């Protein structure tokens, strides 16, 4: 078939070019290291970004404006990405939401709250303009489901970051959508982006804002939300914030039978409490051996045993912690599905053992 | 000849916990400096390899040829010993850097990485100097202890040794295939074929790279590149062989029988590692070119700690050994290598022909 011939020839050329016989001349990694020696932001294989400026947003909260390289590939408002930093020589990553809208200058903003024991957030706060970090490709699909229905945004603490990205994108698009934003923080001084929201409000005629300082008025709970937004039940809702706040709002929607109107994005780990009577299973991982209880994630178990597996989102999205299971059965805590007994790829953060396991990276 | 020291009871437990404590203390210091070191080594290897191959391909005259050979040999030596060997031990796994991870690293030598991870990390490091279990002891070719059987061919072992040293990367590469077992009919043909496959694949790639691809890229300069690569591989082979033989086959090194090490505790394992290994003394540059295998004793005690830490641990290990009366085998390169050569010659003779030590 003559029509197939050119296609086949390309594939042979490709196969030759990719042949291990040509190593190291055809190894992107090797060339990439050379390129990085000239400019640390250059890479043929990794998505990296240069810190352009740092801005303090509130006590303990700092924004990084980053210029990603060509491997980054852009993002949608509401998405997040894995930021990888070196902490005392070891590569560590955490997911952060973008807090800016995609713009023509290609800059992205991450807004990071410094956590007491968070090594990555501390290292992120220590970054200076000009430094280069690894920034994974954008992930997630936190966005309004409809283009024009009235919207309610519920944000607490640094849960404001994806909302800010969405609002900025709406303003850039000249949207007149009816949006109510309920923003909560512990004190008025901790409310993120106050001045920038004033500016946005001038460009978004449909935006109404409610700020809630829990130090003055108590925690933002279901009655408080209903009092602030009487028509909450008729709005499409978006939720982001700390675990406790999210659980409260999710319960409120579930009670009203409106769980499907609520889209949520959670930060950090929502570790399931482990039943103390649960069966414990021996896990072999990369030469190490430790026990993990049914119900506990393999990632938590490995960390409790002193290992440092790579991880990102800790909720089964980013696949940073993915590894090969050689044998044994695991339960996927997200889907509730049992795995087969044989070799397959699993995510450590959402897998819990149902039998003894053998894992390889 | 030094005698084997054995420790018992509380003394053994105290010895064990002192070494454990040293390990914990050092592990707590591992961090940025070690990450910087291994990356700098990788940069050096890459630079040295490019310089060496560049001089061989584009250079003219004997001076640039010799310089090219030396640069390429240095790149191969540092890559094999300072990066490959140490990374494949998992010394840098904590960095979470996939390009420096023990499970996936592949080195510039004909030995397949997975074969090495088994024959070296498992067999040699666990069963160090246990005759019959540690197949690195004599590499299945040399008789270096009276526990090994003497045959007529053993008389020629200085010659075998010279051949092994010159072709050391091949010796290492076929090590885990266990050809001897196949020839004696103790391995099914299917298993043998399975074991040969990764070796043939890796060897093919290495031969193609050094003796086809790079010479071809040099067009009419191809003989210069081909001979240069051959010379660089020869230098690397002789050097790595000398360093590695100094690690376990020097005169004062002890050997063990499988029965001696049955039910061994961690403390006894430590003792065997110390008495089955020997160190080399030299300058900082010398240590670097050995991939810190000049600190073989520390490496065998703590194979998963980043190698540059051995330099800092050595005086402490030595001091602990002195207090417990354990012989710490160390010396300059020529003294230790002389001992290795003496051992090769001595055990070439059958036991009864030799005079008993006075």
Tag the structure with descriptive keywords:
heterodimer; A: 361 residues; alpha/beta; Elongation Factor Tu (Ef-tu), domain 3; Rossmann fold; Ubiquitin-like (UB roll); five-stranded parallel β-sheet; 30% strand; B: 358 residues; mainly alpha; two-stranded parallel ribbon
Describe the structure.
The complex is a heterodimer of chains A (361) and B (358). By secondary structure, chain A is α/β, with parallel strands linked by helices. Chain A has 3 domains: 48-135, Translation factors (Elongation Factor Tu (Ef-tu), domain 3), CATH 2.40.30.10; 151-266, Rossmann fold (3-Layer(aba) Sandwich); 280-360, Roll (Ubiquitin-like (UB roll)). Chain A has helices spanning 5-18, 28-38, 119-125, 160-172, 194-203, 214-217, 222-228, 243-255, 298-304; strands spanning 48-58, 61-68, 80-87, 90-97, 108-113, 132-135, 151-156, 179-185, 207-213, 236-241, 262-266, 280-285, 288-293, 322-327, 330-332, 344-347, 351-353, 357-360. The model of chain A is unreliable at 1-6 (pLDDT under 50). By secondary structure, chain B is an all-alpha fold. Chain B has one domain. In chain B, 61% of the residues lie in helices and 2% in strands. Chain B has 14 helices and 2 strands, in the order H-H-H-H-H-H-H-H-H-H-E-H-H-H-E-H. Chain B has a two-stranded parallel sheet. Chain B is globular. The mean pLDDT of chain B is 92. Chain A binds chain B through residues 20-23, 25, 29-30, 33-34, 37, 86, 88-92, 286-287, 308, 310, 360-361, and chain B through 30-36, 42-43, 46, 90, 93-97, 99, 101, 103-104, 204-205, 208-209, 213.
């Amino acid at each position: 078939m003559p029509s197939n011939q050119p296609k086949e020839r390309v594939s042979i050329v490709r196969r030759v070019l990719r042949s291990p016989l040509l190593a190291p001349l055809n190894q992107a990694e090797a060339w990439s290291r050379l390129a990085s020696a000239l400019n640390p932001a250059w890479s043929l294989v990794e998505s990296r970004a240069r810190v352009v400026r740092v801005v303090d947003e509130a006590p303990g909260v700092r924004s990084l404006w980053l210029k990603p390289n060509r491997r980054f590939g852009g993002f949608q408002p509401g998405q997040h990405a894995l930021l990888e930093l070196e902490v005392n020589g070891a590569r560590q990553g955490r997911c952060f939401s973008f807090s800016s809208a995609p713009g023509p200058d290609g800059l992205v903003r991450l807004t990071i709250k410094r956590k007491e024991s968070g090594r990555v957030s501390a290292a992120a706060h220590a970054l200076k303009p000009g430094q280069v970090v690894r920034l994974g490709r954008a992930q997630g699909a936190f966005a309004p489901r409809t283009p024009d229905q009235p919207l309610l945004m519920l944000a607490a603490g640094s849960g404001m970051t994806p909302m800010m990205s969405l609002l900025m994108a709406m303003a850039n698009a000249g949207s007149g959508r009816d949006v109510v934003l309920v923003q909560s923080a512990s004190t008025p001084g901790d409310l993120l982006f106050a001045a920038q929201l004033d500016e946005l409000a001038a460009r978004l005629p449909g935006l109404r804002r409610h700020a809630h300082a829990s130090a003055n008025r108590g925690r933002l709970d279901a009655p408080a939300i209903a009092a602030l937004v009487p028509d909450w039940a008729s709005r499409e809702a978006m939720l982001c914030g700390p675990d406790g706040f999210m659980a409260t709002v999710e319960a409120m929607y579930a009670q009203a039978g409106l769980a499907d109107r609520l889209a949520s994005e959670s930060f950090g780990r929502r570790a399931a409490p482990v039943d103390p009577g649960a069966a414990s299973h021996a896990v072999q991982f990369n030469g190490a051996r430790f026990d993990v209880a049914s119900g506990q994630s393999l990632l938590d178990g490995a960390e409790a045993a002193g290992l440092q597996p790579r991880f990102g989102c800790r909720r089964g999205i980013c696949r940073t912690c993915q590894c090969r299971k050689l044998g044994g059965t695991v339960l996927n805590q997200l889907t509730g599905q049992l795995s087969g007994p044989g070799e397959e790829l699993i995510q450590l953060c959402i897998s819990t053992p149902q039998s003894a396991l053998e894992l390889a990276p | 000849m030094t005698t084997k020291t054995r420790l018992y009871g509380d003394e053994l437990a105290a010895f064990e916990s002192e070494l454990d404590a040293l390990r914990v203390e050092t592990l707590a210091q591992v961090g940025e400096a070690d990450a910087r070191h291994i990356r700098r080594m990788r940069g050096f290897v890459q630079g040295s390899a490019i310089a060496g191959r560049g001089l061989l391909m584009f250079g003219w005259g004997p001076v640039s040829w010799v310089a090219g050979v030396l640069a390429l040999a240095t790149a191969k030596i540092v890559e094999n010993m300072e990066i490959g060997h140490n990374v494949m031990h998992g010394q840098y796994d904590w960095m979470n850097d996939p390009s420096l991870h023990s499970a996936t690293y592949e080195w510039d030598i004909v030995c397949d990485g997975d074969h090495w991870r088994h024959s070296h990390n498992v067999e040699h490091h666990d069963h160090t100097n246990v005759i019959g279990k540690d197949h690195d002891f004599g590499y299945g070719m040399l008789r270096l202890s009276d526990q090994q059987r003497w045959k007529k061919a053993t008389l020629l072992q200085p010659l075998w040794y010279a051949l092994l040293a010159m072709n050391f990367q091949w010796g290492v590469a076929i090590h885990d295939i266990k050809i001897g077992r196949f020839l004696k009919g103790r391995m099914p043909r299917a298993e043998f074929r399975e074991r040969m496959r990764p070796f043939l694949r890796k060897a093919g790639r290495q031969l193609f790279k050094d003796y086809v691809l790079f010479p071809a890229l040099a067009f009419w300069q191809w003989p210069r590149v081909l001979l240069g690569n051959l010379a660089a591989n020869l230098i690397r082979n002789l050097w790595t062989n000398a360093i590695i033989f100094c690690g376990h086959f020097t005169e004062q090194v002890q050997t063990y029988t499988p029965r001696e090490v049955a039910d061994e505790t961690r403390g006894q394992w430590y003792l065997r590692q110390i008495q089955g290994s020997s160190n080399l003394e030299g300058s900082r540059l010398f240590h670097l070119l050995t991939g810190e295998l000049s600190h073989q004793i520390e490496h065998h005690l703590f194979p998963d700690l980043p190698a540059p830490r051995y330099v800092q641990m050595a005086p402490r290990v030595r001091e602990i050994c002195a207090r417990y009366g354990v012989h710490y085998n160390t010396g300059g390169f020529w003294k230790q290598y002389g001992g290795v050569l003496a051992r090769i010659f001595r055990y070439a003779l059958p036991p009864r022909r030799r005079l008993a030590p006075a």
